[in-house]
Structures are given as structure tokens and as C-alpha cells.
Amino acid sequence: MTIKPGWQGRFFEDFEIDDVYQHPLGRTITETDNTWFTLLTMNTAETHFNAETGRSSEFGRSLVVSTLTLAITVGQSVIDTTFNAFANLGFDNVVLSRPVFAGDTLWSESMVVAVRESASRPQAGIVTIKTRALNQHGDEVLSFLRTFYVYKRGAEGARRSFPTATTPFTATAEERP
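and the corresponding C-alpha cells:
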């Protein structure tokens, strides 16, 4: 049996200015997502959870909480950008360019805009990316800059700690076609 490592993420050395990562997973936002996030974050703006308030607004329906849109977009980018990061240093220039509604599907992509060595942490570097979210029509709904510390390849903190199984991983004859 050969163990094949899964995706290990990008390390500091992998980031080059102007590289663009189109993140692989789209996410459709539901009414439930919006309601739960509104409750979890104690957002009391009724435009997010009161259908009557939403209907009487200029949009004619309830809006998705903007910080949910931000959270999903950041989450979508992790697989390609911060899988090996250990700290976000800042979110800047957050722009909400279009409203998002329940039923919209978000996709996101990130561009590397700055890369530099860390002066205080030789095992890491600092990367800045510009990320944007697109809805199902291809309209940009959100953009922001995010700066983070990311480990260099081989750094002590970047090592994964997959547990050693107490029993061998096998397949029985019945499981094999």
C-alpha cells in the first residue's frame, strides 16, 4: 500500500505577484444560512430577517448579511491561499458592490498583489491578496485586500499531524470488485 498525500496547500515560496487563483467551490446562500448568521452575530437590522421589511425596501426582498458574504468569500479562498497561513494581519478596502440575496451562488478568486519576507519570523513570509466574489451572473458583489503570514516550505509549524492508526487500513476481498 502506498499513501498518497492530499493537497498540501501553498507555502510562501509558491506565491508570485499577479498569480490568480479561481477557487474551486461555489456556494449557494440559503435563507437558513442568512437567518442563522444574523442570529449568531446578533445583527438586529431587520432587512436581513424580516420579510416585510425586505419587501418594502428598495430591493424588494431581504438582503444577505454583508459579513456572511465576506465570511463565505474568505472561506472559499482558504484552500488556495491560507491553507498554510498562521495569522491574518489585516482586511482592507472591503467593498460591497452589489446586494446579495438568498438563492445567490457565490464564486471567488484571488490575485497575489504583494509578497515579502518576514523580518521577525524567518520561517514565514507575508502575502497580500485581492479577493473578489462573483454571483451566478458573473457580477462582482464584494472585493477586499487580505494580508497574512504564511509558512515557508519545511517550517516546523507547517507540519501536519495526521494520527497514526491503531489498526492497519485494509480492504477485504468482498470490498474489492
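(Above: one complete record from the training split.) Residues 12-154 form a domain with the Thiol Ester Dehydrase; Chain A fold (CATH 3.10.129.10).
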